[in-house]
Amino acid sequence: MIDSLIFDVDGTIWDTTPVVEKAWNAALDECGLSYAHITADILKSLFGLPMDTIIERILPNENDDVRKKFKPLCYSYEEAYVEKESGILYGGIGETLKALAAKFPLFIVSNCQSGYIELLLKKTGFAPFFKDFTCNGDTGLLKDENIKLIAKRNGLKSPVYVGDTQGDADACAKAGVPIVYASYGFGKISSPEYTITKPKDLLSLFCN
Q1: 8 and 41: one domain?
Q2: H-assigned helices in the chain
Q3: Which residues does residue 180 pair with via DSSP β-bridges, in sequence order?
Q4: Which of 42, 62, 85 delimits the end of a domain?
Q5: Residues contacting 165, CB < 8 A, separation 6+
Q6: What is the predicted pLDDT for the residue at 14?
Q7: Distance from C-alpha of 113 to C-alpha of 147, rounded to nearest angstrom
Q8: Which residues, 6+ apart, have CB-to-CB distance to 29 below 8 Å?
Q9: pTM of the complete model
Q10: Contact present, 97 and 58 (Cβ < 8 Å)
Q11: Is there a single domain that holds both residue 54 and residue 80?
C-alpha cells in the first residue's frame, strides 16, 4: 500500500511548452543565437532533463561561456513569460490533486530551476495540496537523489512517483520507487508499474 505520491511538473501537472518556446527564443535572440530557435515540440523532447543538459543540446556547438550567458537569461525570460501567460493544466488535475491530498501527502520533485515550482503553485493555487517539494535548481542533485531526499525528509516509506518520461522512470528505478506513467504527457516509458491516460485515473488506482 502506498503512503504518498510525488509528482513531476511539466508533462504531468501542466504544459508550458508553448509559452517557454517564446521565452527561450527571446533569450536566444538577446544572446545573438537566433539560429538555434526552438519549438514547443523540441522542448517536449527535452523537458525532464537537467537544465545544463538541455542547454548543451540546444547549443551543441557553443562553448561554455556562451551557454553560461544564455542560462540566466533563459530563466528570467521563462519566469516572466510564465508569470504573464501561465501553463496549460491537464484536464481534471485540480480535482484529482484535491481528492488525493485528502487521503495522501503529496509532493513535487522536478529537474527544473529554482523558483519554478513556486511559480506553478502560485499560478494554479495548488499550494495547499502539497506538503513539500524540491528540484535540481535548489539542491544541485539529480532526480533520483531528490526523490530520496524528499522521502527521507518526510519519513515516506512507500511513495510512488507520477511522471511522463523514461528519465523519470530511470530515476525512480535508482531511488527504488514505483513509477506511475502519465501517458498523456511528453514522453514514453517502457514497463512502468502503473499507467494512467488522464490525471483522474490516479483516483481509480489509489482511492478505491
Answers
A1: no
A2: 17-30, 40-46, 51-58, 64-85, 93-101, 116-124, 136-139, 143-153, 166-175, 201-206
A3: 162, 194
A4: 85
A5: 8, 11, 47, 48, 185, 186, 187, 188, 189
A6: 97
A7: 16
A8: none
A9: 0.93
A10: no
A11: yes
Note the maximum CA span of the chain: 54
10-residue stretch averages of pLDDT, the chain, 208 residues long: 96 96 96 96 90 93 94 93 94 98 98 94 97 96 97 98 96 98 96 97 94
**What letters, b where the CB count within 10 A reaches 16 and e where it falls short, cover 11-49?**
bbbbbbbebbbebbbbbbeebebeebebeeebbbebbbb
Residue 48's pLDDT is 82
Q: Which amino acid is at 72?
A: P
Contact 180, 196 (CB under 8 A): yes
User: What confidence score (pLDDT) does residue 103 get?
Assistant: 97
Q: What are the beta bridge partners of residue 107?
A: 6, 132
Instruction: Kindly give, in sequence order, each residue whose CB lies less than 8 Å from that of residue 146, ignoring residues fewer than 6 positions away.
Output: 109, 134, 135, 136, 139
Distances, alpha carbon 163 to alpha carbons 37, 173, 183, 194, in Å: 27, 13, 9, 11
Of 73, 89, 83, which is closest to residue 10 (Cα–Cα)? Answer: 89
Q: Which of 54, 85, 116 is the last residue of a domain?
A: 85
